[in-house]
Write a structure and sequence with these properties.
Layout (H helix, E strand, L loop, with lengths): L1 H21 L6 E2 H4 E3 L5 E10 L12 H13 L14 E10 L8 E8 L10 E8 L5 E8 L1 E2 L2 E4 L4 E4 L4 E10 L12 E6 L4 H15 L4 E5 L2 E5 L8 H8 L3 E2 L6 E5 L4 E4 L4 E2 L2 E3 L5 E6 L2 E3 L11 E3 L2 E6 L7 E3 L5 H9 L5 H13 L3 E2 L1 E4 L1
Parallel strand pairs: 16-26
Antiparallel strand pairs: 1-15, 2-12, 3-4, 3-6, 4-5, 5-11, 6-7, 7-11, 8-11, 9-10, 12-14, 13-14, 16-17, 18-25, 19-24, 20-23, 21-22
Helix pairs in contact: 1-4
Length: 374
C-alpha cells in the first residue's frame, strides 16, 4: 500500500514538473494563437468580371480592348447581338475579383470579396459587379460573386484642380460571393495531425509537446522540427480528433523567440526584441555640420563719379562645426531591454543615427541579436 502511494506521489510530481517546464513564468499564449492545425486553412480564389453602372468613370473602350470583348460577349449571352456596333459607353469597367475561401465552408455560405479595376477606370463608385465565377488554384469554380461595390476612396475635381482620397478603383462587397463547392477534409476521422508553429522555434515546439503530453498522460506529441509538433490520437481517447484539438488549443505556452532587431531604414522605425543583449561598449557619435549663408551686398559708385554703376557683390559665409565636444559614451552590459534602450537614449541620438550605431555594434561583435533590415 505504501509503495502504491509512493508511486502515485512520484507520478504527480513528474506531471507537475512537466507542466512547470512546459509553462515557464512569463507571458503565455494559447496554442490556438501560436500554431495552425494541419488542413485547417483558407484557399484563395480569383475571377474576372465586369462592373456596370458607373457614372462615366469606367474604362475607355479604345484603350481597354479586353473590356470591349467582355462586354460584347456578355451581351451576346443575354441575346443582344452587337457584332458591328461601335461601343462607346464609359459606364463599364473590367475588374479582378479576389476572395479567401474559409476552411470547412459549406455550400450556400457567403464570403466577402475584393474588386479591383483592371483597365483605366477612374472610380468604381456606384458600380455593381455582375455574376463572376471565382476559381481556385485547380481551375474549379468554388464561388460565384455579384453585388454592389462599396469603396472607401473618392475622386473629385474641376478644370484646374482635382483631389483623390483613398483608392477609388478598389472596393469590397460584404457577403458578395456564394460558395458553390466545398473543399473536403475529414478532420474528425484523422488518427494523427501536425501542428505548425507560426513562428518556428525549437524551444516553443518542445514546450508545446510537453504541455500536450502532460494533459494526455502519454508521450503522444513529439516536436519533429522547430516548426512542427506531431500529435497522435490516444487509443483510449473515445472522442474524435476535433474534440481532442478543442482540449489542446486552450493550453497555455510561453513562446520563445530569437533575439532580433528589425530595422526599417526608409521610415527610421526600429523594433527590438525582448532578448536583445549588448556587451559593454563605448560609443561616440560625431556630427559634421556645414552652414553656408549667402548675404549679397549692393555696391554703389561715389557721388558724381564718372562711369560708375551700381552692382551686387556676393558675400558668402561658411561655418563648420565638427562636434569636437562629443565624447565617448559607455553602454554597460545590459540585462533587460529597458536598460538597453535607456543606455542608447542616454547618448541623445535620433532613430536614423541609432540604426548606424546598431550596425556598428553588431560588426564589433558586441550585439547578441540578429538585425533584419526591411
Amino acid at each position: 500500500m505504501r509503495a502504491h502511494i509512493l508511486s502515485i506521489t512520484t507520478l504527480l510530481f513528474a506531471i507537475a514538473l512537466t507542466i512547470a517546464l512546459a509553462i515557464p513564468a512569463g507571458a503565455t499564449s494559447r496554442i490556438k494563437d501560436i500554431a495552425d492545425f494541419e488542413g485547417v486553412r483558407e484557399n484563395q480564389l480569383v475571377g474576372y468580371g465586369l462592373v456596370v453602372g458607373l457614372n462615366g468613370t469606367g474604362d475607355t473602350l479604345n484603350n481597354a480592348p479586353f473590356t470591349r470583348q467582355s462586354l460584347r460577349a456578355m451581351l451576346e449571352r443575354l441575346g443582344v447581338n452587337t457584332p458591328s456596333a461601335e461601343l462607346r459607353t464609359a459606364n463599364v469597367a473590367a475588374v479582378m475579383v479576389t476572395a479567401n475561401l474559409p476552411p470547412f465552408a459549406t455550400q450556400g455560405t457567403r464570403i466577402d470579396i475584393t474588386v479591383s479595376a483592371l483597365g483605366d477606370a477612374d472610380s468604381l463608385q456606384g458600380g455593381t459587379l455582375l455574376v463572376t465565377p471565382l476559381l481556385g488554384a485547380d481551375g474549379e469554380v468554388y464561388a460565384i460573386g455579384q453585388g454592389p461595390v462599396a469603396i472607401a476612396g473618392f475622386e473629385a475635381g474641376g478644370a484646374a484642380a482635382s483631389i483623390t482620397r483613398g483608392v477609388p478603383t478598389t472596393g469590397r462587397i460584404a457577403n458578395g460571393a456564394l460558395v458553390e463547392r466545398e473543399v473536403h477534409f475529414d478532420l474528425a476521422n484523422m488518427s494523427s495531425i501536425r501542428l505548425a508553429l507560426r513562428n518556428p522555434d525549437l524551444t516553443t515546439a518542445r514546450r508545446m509537446a510537453l504541455a500536450i503530453n502532460a494533459l494526455l498522460g502519454e508521450e503522444l506529441a513529439v516536436s519533429t522540427d522547430p516548426g512542427t509538433v506531431q500529435l497522435t490520437l490516444p487509443s483510449h481517447y473515445q472522442t474524435s480528433m476535433v474534440e481532442l484539438l478543442t482540449d489542446i488549443e486552450q493550453l497555455l505556452i510561453e513562446p520563445d523567440q530569437t533575439a532580433r532587431i528589425v530595422v526599417d531604414e526608409s521610415s527610421g522605425i526600429i523594433v527590438l526584441g525582448r532578448d536583445v543583449r549588448v556587451s559593454t561598449v563605448a560609443i561616440a557619435q560625431g556630427n559634421l555640420t556645414v552652414t553656408i549663408t549667402e548675404e549679397p551686398q549692393v555696391s554703389q559708385a561715389l557721388p558724381f563719379a564718372e562711369g560708375g554703376e551700381t552692382v551686387v557683390v556676393p558675400r558668402t559665409a561658411i561655418d563648420v562645426v565638427e562636434g569636437q565636444e562629443t565624447q565617448l559614451g559607455i553602454v554597460e552590459q545590459t540585462v533587460t531591454l529597458r536598460e538597453l534602450v535607456d543606455g542608447l537614449n542616454s547618448l541623445g541620438i535620433g532613430p536614423r543615427d541609432l540604426i548606424a550605431i546598431l550596425h556598428a555594434i553588431k560588426a564589433a561583435g558586441a550585439l547578441q541579436a540578429d538585425i533584419e533590415v526591411m
